[in-house]
Design a protein that fits this description.
Layout: E1 6-7, E2 12-13, E3 39-42, E4 51-56, E5 62-66, E6 75-79, E7 90-94, E8 105-108, E9 114-117, E10 128-132, E11 137-140, E12 155-158, E13 164-167, E14 178-181, E15 186-189, E16 204-206, E17 212-215, E18 222-226, E19 231-234, E20 254-255, E21 261-264, E22 270-274, E23 283-286, E24 301-303, E25 309-314, E26 322-328, E27 333-337, E28 344-345, E29 353-356, E30 362-365, E31 371-375, E32 387-393, E33 399-404, E34 413-414, E35 427-432, E36 438-440, E37 442-444, E38 458-463, E39 471-479, E40 482-483, E41 487-491, E42 496-500, E43 504-508, E44 513-514, E45 517-524, E46 530-535, E47 541-544, E48 547-550, E49 555-562, E50 572-582, E51 587-598, E52 619-621, E53 628-631, E54 647-650, E55 657-664, E56 670-679, E57 686-692, E58 695-701, E59 706-716, E60 721-730, E61 735-745, E62 749-756, E63 759-765, E64 771-777, E65 786-787, E66 792-793, E67 798-803, E68 812-818
Parallel strand pairs: 43-51
Antiparallel strand pairs: 1-2, 3-31, 4-5, 5-6, 6-7, 8-9, 9-10, 10-11, 12-13, 13-14, 14-15, 16-17, 17-18, 18-19, 20-21, 21-22, 22-23, 24-25, 24-34, 25-26, 26-27, 26-28, 29-30, 30-31, 32-33, 33-38, 35-36, 35-39, 37-38, 39-40, 39-41, 42-45, 43-44, 45-49, 46-48, 46-50, 47-49, 50-51, 52-55, 53-54, ...
């Protein structure tokens, strides 16, 4: 149904009803705009039109459109001033869309482009467009798969691979979804919702495991999208009503700092969801009631840097005025705060939008040309603060940053199906140390689209703005407004261009490491020749040549190589700064090289015991959920986990289902590849196969009944990426898999062989905990090796043993690892 239009004093708005998305040196911490906590400030420059949807672009600017009663196609850009202030920012006009849209889905893509799709009002109900900020152009995407129906009033999310999941309203396939592939630029059919229907007026929340949670309209069922399965699964029943009966509306939902999610309702209720961490249902509980009998329906909200959520509430669905409250998830309570013009704001909440800005403030629009900024109180939440680990160049003028929490701990601001303004991606802000002027780089190629990524290393690339002058900068990464501790970034566009092929070495204690060398390409961009020199500090690196002359447009290769000192380094991460100096103008450029020395027992396999409760980090080629799943011993009690709480249960019927994972390996490195397999009843036909990078190591057909059995192999990597693969079939019941490990080990090598008193004393390098067999032969030509004594399990990194009475004129020895 549709509601009557209402005059708001400045704009005619449709009320929403439910209808049928380089140097790395510690510096001083920047302030985060905390001059007046908990206050509103009006933007000094009014927007050129009535602002509706607002998106944060990866270069720190805001992209905004006008509603115009469903006839809007215009877009505008808000650029902060030279001191980083959005209040004093300026507006410019962008190219308009090809179609008019009001209330539609929108997502910023990891390549920096913007996707918009569908509309509840306007001409773009069944179309999608891509905006390229670099070219200022709009391109209509190909149509969704035949028979998928209208995009219409849809909601969307960025899923773990960077693609966009969209739930159309009025899909031709009941409960159908669409997926936009950001690489191919095409649409494909997505998984069908478990509870059919469509996600009209719903709010989606991305959880720490990257699954997407929704309360299905318009009742109390809930379900989740599982990215690793590309499937929706049933979840728990919500204990209180969230959708109001008459209009079918609800409020914006948020992931909270403690990992739970809150869904506020148009009924005055709230519901709290605690994730299970697996594909199993989470737990729903009734949350605190909204204060003073207020409700939230088709309304904006924002997760703030202090960990609190700013909500807009009204007295009844589509009520006026609007009240503003902050929700404290620790105290589980609401506290009223002022609106932009006093205790309340004389506008309906469905006309409002919010957006988290990278300076820690919240941008607010009531669909008029006058916008406001809300400055939260308190301090940024430490648990949401990104950290920067490394900064390097990509050799093409762009830079590469690694660290943690670049995506923040939530998706930022939210509204629901009418607008998505997610900002869980890294922004790079630089402040000049002399002038204090602020510049935003443009980030792209984010390695993660998740939230609450914890200690996982994530990365982003960035390019500098064309107007940035050379100098020393304080650089921070900001996620949803929460900024990292700064590092010092030296930018010097010198005639000497230094580019590199690799800036990281990785290996295990004692060697080997990969790669063994890295190259720097020096190019003279100037009109005259220049002299150059390079220096280093690390004893584990050598570099050659160390100086030279470059003619104009000339180039030279400088090679940095690991030396034997690297083999004696203890476990840890080591860095060296190369200083390249243009001796003609004395400009110095730094490049940081990292050496990561891993322990010998460094475990490569992710989710090796399936303790996430699902197949996260694994690829499954086979049925998911019926024949192949992760269990804690409840569904199929005949197989209890070998260790931990979960194990994989595999039982494809009629053919092998394959479970695989790609691991980063060191070419030439020896690894111990181990797994535990269970066949509880020996029923059949059954089969278990194990392969290392396409080479079959084990293939057991019609295995008898066995308990947990260790299958271990010593294998050598031939490349930097190695695929481990398990194939399972069990037509009768299921087979079990648990505790899969790939551990680099040191190949044994004799260090001393001595003859004393007629006995031969042998010493070889070893890995504590591994087992070795000493062998001997009296004739290498014959190749007959015999065991000398029983296998020996090393208790240290050295094994010493004796051949007490060797017979014959000669004897040859060798030592082998025993799986």
């Amino acid at each position: 149904m549709r509601h009557n239009s209402a005059w708001n004093g400045t704009n005619l708005l449709f009320r929403r009803g439910f209808c049928p998305i380089l140097a790395l040196i510690a510096g001083l911490l920047l302030p985060w705009q905390s001059a007046m906590a908990g206050t509103w400030t009006a933007l000094n420059n009014g927007a050129p039109d009535s602002i509706d949807t607002m998106l944060l672009l990866p270069d720190g600017t805001v992209m905004a459109t006008a509603g115009n009663n469903g006839q809007g196609s215009g877009w505008y850009r808000l650029t902060p001033d030279s001191h980083g202030s959005y209040v004093n920012g300026t507006w410019t006009t962008l190219t308009p869309m090809n179609y008019t849209r009001l209330y539609y889905t929108s997502q910023v893509l990891k390549n920096g482009n913007v996707l918009v799709a569908g509309a509840e009002y306007g001409s773009g109900t069944n179309s999608a467009e891509i905006y390229n900020p670099q070219l200022n152009t709009w391109t209509v995407t190909p149509s969704p798969p035949a028979g998928q129906g209208l995009f219409y009033d849809c909601i969307s999310e960025t899923i773990s691979n960077g693609n966009i999941l969209v739930a159309p309203v009025q899909p031709a396939v009941y409960g159908g979804t669409d997926i936009y592939n950001i690489l191919s630029g095409t649409w494909s059919s997505g998984p069908t919702l478990v509870n059919d229907g469509y996600e009209d007026e719903a709010s989606w929340v991305k959880l720490p495991d990257q699954s997407i949670l929704t309360i299905d309209p318009f009742g109390t069922d809930s379900e989740r999208y599982i990215p690793t399965l590309n499937q929706w699964v049933n979840d728990g029943i919500v204990p209180v009503a969230i959708y109001d009966v008459t209009n079918g509306e609800m409020g914006p939902a948020f992931l909270l700092p403690d990992g739970t999610a809150i869904f506020p309702g148009a009924t005055g209720n709230t519901a709290i969801y605690t994730p299970s961490g697996s594909t199993s249902p989470g737990t729903w509980t009734a949350g605190p009631a909204l204060p003073n009998s207020l409700v939230t329906a088709d309304a904006p909200g924002a997760m703030m840097v202090n960990g609190k959520v700013l909500f807009t509430l009204t007295a009844g669905v589509f009520g006026n005025p609007t009240y503003f409250y902050e929700y404290d998830s620790v105290a589980k309570s609401f506290a009223q705060v002022n609106g932009p013009a006093g205790p309340t704001f004389g506008q309906v909440s469905f006309a409002m939008r919010m957006l988290d800005l990278p300076d820690g403030t919240v941008l607010f629009s009531d669909t008029s040309p006058q916008l406001y900024v809300y400055q939260p109180g308190g301090t940024p939440l430490a648990a949401g603060r990104p950290t920067i680990n490394t900064l390097s160049t990509n050799g093409d003028g762009s830079y590469h940053l690694t660290g943690t929490l670049f995506n923040g701990i939530s998706e930022g601001a939210a509204y629901g199906d009418d607008a998505q303004m997610d900002s869980n991606y890294p922004l790079v802000r630089m402040t000049n140390s002399l002038s204090g002027l602020v510049y935003y780089a443009r980030t792209f190629n984010w390695s993660s689209s998740g939230v609450m990524t914890g200690t996982n290393i994530v990365s982003t690339d960035f390019v500098l703005p064309a107007t940035i002058p050379q100098g020393i900068y304080s650089l921070v990464v900001s996620a949803n407004g929460n900024a990292s501790a700064p590092i010092t970034f030296v930018y010097s566009p010198d005639a000497l261009l230094v580019s590199s092929t690799n800036l990281a070495f990785v290996g295990t204690a004692g060697g080997s490491f990969t790669p063994v060398s890295t190259s720097f390409i020096l190019t003279n961009l100037g009109p005259t020749s220049l002299n150059w020199a390079v220096g280093k500090t690390a004893s584990w690196l050598g570099i050659s040549p160390t100086n030279g002359i470059l003619a104009s447009s000339g180039s030279a290769t400088v090679t940095a190589s690991l030396n034997t000192n690297a083999n004696s380094l203890a476990v840890g991460i080591y860095t060296n700064t190369f200083l390249f100096t243009n001796l003609s103008d004395h400009v110095v450029q730094s490049r940081i090289v990292t050496l990561q020395v891993n322990p010998l027992q460094f475990q490569l396999v992710q989710n090796n015991g399936f303790e996430t409760g699902d197949f996260t980090d694994w690829g499954l080629n086979g049925d998911a959920g019926t024949y192949n799943f992760v269990d804690n011993g409840t569904y199929f009690p005949e197989i209890q986990p070998h260790s931990g709480s979960y194990c994989a249960i595999m039982g494809e019927v009629g053919f092998l289902a394959y479970l695989s994972q790609t691991n980063f390996t060191t070419p030439g490195q020896l690894y111990l590849f181990s797994s535990w397999v269970n066949s509880p009843d020996g029923g059949g036909p059954n089969e278990c196969s194990i392969a290392w990078n396409g080479t079959t190591l084990f293939d057991g057909v019609n295995m008898p009944a066995i308990g947990w059995t260790n299958l271990a192999f010593f294998v050598t990597a031939t490349g930097t990426n190695t695929v481990i693969q398990f194939g399972f079939r069990d037509d009768a019941t299921w087979l079990g898999l648990d505790d899969v490990t790939v551990i680099p080990v040191r190949a044994p090598a004799f260090t001393t062989v001595a003859n004393s008193g007629g006995s031969i004393h042998l010493t070889w390098s070893a890995t504590s905990g591994l087992t070795y067999q000493l062998l001997y032969s009296t004739n290498l030509t014959a190749g007959a090796w015999q065991n000398l004594g029983s296998p020996i399990t090393a208790t240290t990194n050295t094994v010493i043993t004796t051949d007490p009475a060797p017979s014959g004129p000669q004897r040859f020895y060798r030592v082998m690892l025993v799986p």
